[in-house]
């Protein structure tokens, strides 16, 4: 994955050994920092299929004695001290510790020493990507992060290189495998969110604390990176509105099915009149859409361009081996292109941002059944100039806790939200109304 | 699309002007050769969204006066003489004339002058890719061909860069939009092949002479390119067995549906025990498969790797604008990476090839109904040690021309073909048996 904010032709610092050898004979010394699942997979690929220009020389990890593996050659040095890596002759640091602290500081220091960095760290790139790339440029090295979004799916190189000739205006995708797994389970078994989450945790598809995944924080960091590359817009993760998948219940899939849809956690962004619309939220997607067909923990990214129309990338977005493929591909890309990559010309711009997408809407009310309630809800909607498209009520639910659904014609989300504030105050509402967009 | 067999760091010939400018200020002068639909789209993208490092300076086309457009700047020189382009100061030739003659000779001459070439010509690359890349390498320029397979879908860069870190063992896809359109029409309308073809021709989805598409010649050229990049195996198009989609009828979709499948023209290749299996042919694919969901003229490529599992690329595989996106992406890639791309290390190898895939099979017999015919067919199959899985016979067909279906357990295609030679000689057969693989 030729993914970098670009470092390029600036003079190189402190790595004079290359001057002595012909370019074809350059061997890059690689240090892996962080030896969890992905780090271990990267080491395994590099030893099972050695690349003539890549040599793993160092592993830096906590608990060296516990993590040391016997299948790596004895020339690989193990350390728990990042300063040892910095002082070594490693050319490339593979950062796989994740999170912002200490990763950000370590990557800054590595780049400032002229060591290129390959990382799978979405939070790092979403928060500090442009700053780190500028440091790389100044020090004649490179920052690559093909593994930071959608793991093994080569979407970063696809957007940055393969679709560079298009004008992309829209990006949407399923970027969090945990949410997709949980929603697939709710759909298949008619389960509640809590039961599906417990199943996912048991099978290792969700963390003990699943907040980052289910609240959308993980996906919005990835979306921020895609927005920068595809829509050339600078945005930070916390500027992207997200809503959790926790209120989704089996009943919503039953109603969605009647509407020809399923429910997915959708990350999407769109450029419209120089404003960036972006959000991460559960949404109804038609069965005929590529988004609907993403099962279990797969990832998918769909890019829409002025000239090329819709292009779709999908595959395994997480897991040690797929993520390691993206890391090793970046390492090979470093070897192939060397330092001589000129900057891309489309730098990300700041733009006004909004989450106020216009779409059809799905409202699921949970009510204590009583006469006249639909009239009251309809009155509020009408007051806000919102048109009802359909009313769906399946039989068989208890009257004290009755879910029913109203779908709305296209209107801005902010209008629906204002109306829902009034509706949620009505005394027959048992819980707040679930408001989901119905995607086109 | 960073697609090249690699040219790289060899000394440059005859282009001394670049020495005088700093690398950041390099502007590449681009000549478009062939001004049909794609050429026109490339020119339009370059003028609607000018790239600071690309300048269109020349268009070479037959019938200049008829094809000249008013919206290109007057500095663009028009000619119908390729020698004028060769003698000009153009740095990059965009070859869009298609076919082998005179394209191959022209591209050879351009590369030998040190001019890089970007091409959308699948036949050229499938037949002469390695030779042309070697000429580019010797003359310090590059050959890029991201548009040669699947138009706007960035599958070449995806395989060459994004998945470089994996060990790919299998590739399959829908590479011909015309066939996919025709098959989609047969499926939707229960049509015969001939009627669907006429519809496709009327709508511009099929040529007046559709042989290249329906016989599989177009798809196998693309498959040969993918095999070289993904499976590192050197193969020529005519070494890939292909069978036409012409015998497919609406009745086959009806029977396939009963088996949970639809029918697509599938291009596939697989490395197994250092042998390459490859073919282009109509096949039954399960509705649950990504291949089944490719509608109308879209393209899709699925790559399977040891570490990353299945990765899917899909989008618009043909048409002026999508193909032009791939061409312009290659031009941008040239500007970004310049000459400084070292060769990839995985050179394509010659390997023994075969089309003798093992799979389940769908046999559709067309018979004159008479007693005992199933027994006779079963006897032949049993003699060849072939197990029958199911027999399907829908009511309502005339007895003199009765289609019925037998599905077989997994066995090599060669065994089925031998048995069919005997079956086709039985006197109640009205036409040769249709034998299609059922993909897993």
What features would you describe in this structure?
The structure is a homodimer of 440-residue chains. Chain A is an alpha/beta fold and 440 residues long. The radius of gyration of chain A is 24 Å and the shape is elongated. The first copy, chain A, folds into 3 domains: 17-152 and 321-350, 3-Layer(aba) Sandwich (Rossmann fold), CATH 3.40.50.720; 167-316, Dihydrodipicolinate Reductase, domain 2, CATH 3.30.360.10; 358-438, ACT domain (Alpha-Beta Plaits, 2-Layer Sandwich). In chain A, α2 (37-48) crosses α13 (320-337) and α6 (122-138) packs parallel to α11. Chain A has 15 helices and 19 strands. In chain A, β2, α3 and β3 form a beta-alpha-beta unit. The two termini of chain A are 31 Å apart. β13 of chain A pairs antiparallel with β13 (309-316) of chain B, so a sheet runs across the interface.
CATH fold name of the largest domain in chain A: Rossmann fold
CATH architecture of the largest domain in chain A: 3-Layer(aba) Sandwich
Work out the helicity level of chain A: 25-40%
Overall residue-averaged pLDDT value of chain A: 91
Summarize the structure.
2 copies of one chain form a homodimer. Chain A has helices spanning 17-20, 37-48, 64-67, 82-87, 103-112, 122-138, 155-162, 177-189, 193-202, 211-214, 217-230, 250-258, 320-337, 373-383, 413-424; strands spanning 28-33, 54-60, 77-79, 92-95, 116-119, 143-144, 168-174, 233-234, 241-242, 261-272, 275-286, 298-305, 309-316, 349-350, 353-354, 358-367, 388-392, 402-412, 429-438. Chain A has 440 residues and is an alpha/beta fold.
